[in-house]
TrEMBL record:
Places the protein is found: Membrane
Keywords: Membrane, Transmembrane, Transmembrane helix
Domain called Armadillo-like helical: residue spans: 435-671
Domain of life: Eukaryota
One cellular component (GO) term of this entry: membrane
Protein name (record): ARMD3 protein
Signal peptide segment: none
Organism: Ptilonorhynchus violaceus
One Pfam family in the UniProt entry: ARMH3_C
Amino acid sequence: MAQPEKKGGLLRKSSASKKPLKEKVVLMYDEIFTTEDPSKSSPRFWEELFLMKVNLEYLEGKLEALDGEELMKIKDNINCLFQHCIQALGEEHPIRVVNALQTLCALIRGVHQKNKSTSGFDIINMLVGFDKAELCMKNLMESLDSLLCAEGSESLKSLCLKLLLCLVTVTDNISQNTILEYVMINSIFEAILQILSSPLSRREHGYDAVVLLALLVNYRKYESVNPYIVKLSIVDDEATLNGMGLVIAQALSEYNRQYKDKEEEHQTGFFSALTNMVGSMFIADADEKISVQTNEAILLALYEAVHLNRNFITVLAQSHPEMGLMTTPTSPIPTTPVTPLGTTPPSSDVISSAELPLDADVQTSNLLITFLKYSSIVMQDTKDEHRLHSGKLCLIILTCIAEDQYANAFLHDDNMNFRVNLHRMPMRHRKKAADKNLPCRPLVCAVLDLMVEFIVTHMMKEFPMDLYVRCIQIVHKLLCYQKKCRVRLHYTWRELWSALINLLKFLMSNETVLLAKHNIFTLALMVVNLFNMFITYGDTFLPTPSSYDELYYEIIRMHQNFDNLYSMVLRLSTNAGQWKEPASKVTHALVNIRAIINHFNPKIESYAAVNHISQLSEDQVLEVVRSNYDTLTLKLQDGLDQYERYSEQHKEAAFFKELVRSISINVRKNLAFNTLSQELLLKEFSTIS
């Protein structure tokens, strides 16, 4: 009877219902699962075990089949197996090392399955025993470090990273995983950096290395000094930082490519024919079908790099010619479906030359452009929880970027112009923008476009208040930089002003529904203060005097919205309800906007009457505005160009804790399907007798 084929996963459970064959290795496992020491009857037992091809399904299944009491009876043998695995990692014979690594993975996963409800302490005791834990874990970490840094087999390095990911994600909440104390003490940080700095290692293992680092950084990050945080924050080696940026860019690019492929497939499919036939009324529903799983693991890595390491900011604008030169690695990579949270690593050649040039003759791409495209996709639909988390994390990353002086310098650099083709949500009242007509502009224009796009497309019943607040804060921080450095950005500011006024209109129209869930006055105040920023300081950063005139024109043209807002906040601020104080803040903030409206409206009406014009053109209104500035009195408002800096620990700790938990669960789940099969590993060493 032929042995059932093993699937391509390192720890994959057999889907077949057949009983495992009693091959020699299985008989040896059975001996371990007795209360007797197997080496008593067979002195060479452990030596022979690691020459046998590992039967992962059987070993892990055997562990899972035991109840807690039975497992405790064979604890000594489990400890002995764990220790001999660690010893085997130091062997020169690569097959022994492969078998030891795979056995360790099966042991960790199997014991975890029996200890789901218990703490990491119980898992340590079951695997290695408290008395020997410190020495054994030190030896394990040193062996893994040596294997990762050695010139040897890429497959061995891959297995080492899988084992480490297995170790890190053994509990859902990684901060409760006491095993990680040993990973903190015996750091593998330098080994991870070495992988990221070497082009060959990065191509093969970069994704796993970056995800592993992102998880390690989040171990008890608020409770104790995490050495991985400290070390990541001071990395200044250009090759390493660029390597990390390349891995992140590849993963995000792969997501963007998958989305584009699905979008094209979708447009040529059934829904396209249907919408052509009956008009555009189904367009929004049709678009919801375009879904590619988000990649929160790699997004977390990008966040940690941007947030912790100021040197990484330079990587965001670094062109990546290497991306376009990627070739398929010689060792086959198993193709697997993308799983939730995008824990599947992209293949090494995911970035084709098509991703690089947004216009093939003009430019290459960079990490920031790829990230902005990714953000424009995931932020389209925030109804799904994973996308909501991804959208929030994208905005948090952009918040960190918008606060950074150096990042702002290259965002606003007139000599760094790009065409950034953001994804726009299909909407009935607007045509799809033609990609070819995109102008070349500084990167900050793409960030502002992304914010405007979000503001316009998310005014809905399930109002994402938190995301709107972050969005407005990002715009404000960019304006603060422009005001401070007197950067005159040539941007279509009218689109932003129009989006902000429509947002205020939406808040007023849905006052009752929204107030039941949110303090809408916080958001309204932020929007009004953005206008105050333009009114007070616009002459220092708007591109031309006519831009400043256009600001006044928009305020006057849409004055009814500001009048209605004033009526609403005045009504609530004169009542003794819970909204009295926040509403009164908006009332005070509207003083200059109301002064502009009350000053210019009579002048415009007078001009129309004198010239016998019923409807003034834009040019005529602008003429009135320009000739009446000198009689306008405005109040100086303090603090418009100041903001509270982003702080993770005080405001975002709960969000990151939950995010890391979901990533950890999915990394663990995905390890079962993504790892190299043993057949593939052994083939690499087939020349060894």
